[in-house]
Amino acid sequence: MDAGDLRIFEAVARLKGMNRAASELHTVQSNVTARIRLLEQSLGEKLFLRHSRGVTLTAAGQRLLPYADKIAELLAQARCAVAEDGKPKGRLSLGSLETTAMLRLPPVLARFAAAHPAVDLVLTTGTTGELVARVLERRLEGAFVCGPIAQSELAEEVVFREELAVVTAPGLRRWHDALAEPDPKIVVLRLGCSYRQRLEALLMKRGVVGLRYLEFGTLDAIIGCVAAGIGITLLPKSVVETPRRQGRLAVHALAPKDARVDTVFIRRRDAFRSSALAAFLDCAYRNGPRAGVRTSGESRSRSLRRPGGAGRNR
């Protein structure tokens, strides 16, 4: 068993077929089939069940797969470490909440792109739940999410701080007056959205349960529906400042303990930290993200930014 065997095994398991794996690996199916048979013989266990639709993992194959994934990741990190010369370059895949990408990241992205043109930055937006999963699965090098996360596999550091507010149609003096309307609704992003979870908790504290949900995929759709009086939502005040000034929305302040939310940057503790990632985080922090707030996490933020440094969990 060697790294090449495990690479083929992982491709077959992921693609659920010898032919599909052969196409991805730019080889012929007979070569993939032969290598899998040799691997099974060396381990003394069947790894796949063959059927008309392709293959599925046996119990032994399921036990082997996490090790194949880890070895593949270690080899990828080894290649990155060897190529690392301290100059930011190559692909950098990050994630962000849509609100953070819209409000906080544009000046950071502009500064980073100007300073490091050799880096190909890919930014994916999603909910906190989606982004945490992608970082854990190593599909993203890091992500800006709503904290705290408190996952042992992840290092995290507060980067931005927001003030949440309940948002309703204009004309309401108190946000809970909207709940007295016939068939009240809350307008939210899909499951996994941290703001949705906070709104649910806020309503539960007031004894409000059983409201109908309207789920949308974009902030623009949510703001438009709330402005039309369809329901209420919970968002950072800075997101809705412009429509509030335009008289399209009413923004209702909350108690500080309910309003404050931290946006944290998360990354896997065991992942290689490239110069590109360190440079991006330097740009984010130099942009004044925390408005001069200095906390005991300052030393951890330096660790998150430094190539090869180890971040602590909050």
Taken as a percent bin, the fraction of beta residues is: 15-25%
Report the helical percentage: 40-55%
Span between termini:
40 Å
Indicate the overall shape: globular
**Count the helices. How many?**
13
Radius of gyration from CA coordinates: 24 Å
- The helix/strand order is HHHEEHEHHEHEEEHEHEHEHEHH
**DSSP, total strands:** 11
Unreliable spans are: 288-303, 305-314
Category by helix and strand content: alpha/beta
Describe the main β-sheet briefly: 7 strands, mixed
Could you please describe the fold and organization of this structure?
There is one protein chain. The chain has about 325 residues and is of the alpha/beta class. Helices cover about 45% and strands about 20% of the residues. The protein is built from 13 helices and 11 strands. It has helices at about 5-15, 20-25, 30-45, 60-85, 100-105, 105-115, 130-135, 195-205, 220-225, 240-245, 255-260, 275-285, 300-305, and strands spanning about 50, 55, 90-95, 120-125, 140-145, 155-170, 185-190, 210-215, 235, 250-255, 260-270. α1 crosses α4 (about 60-85) and α6 crosses α12. It is globular and about 75 Å long. The two termini are about 40 Å apart.
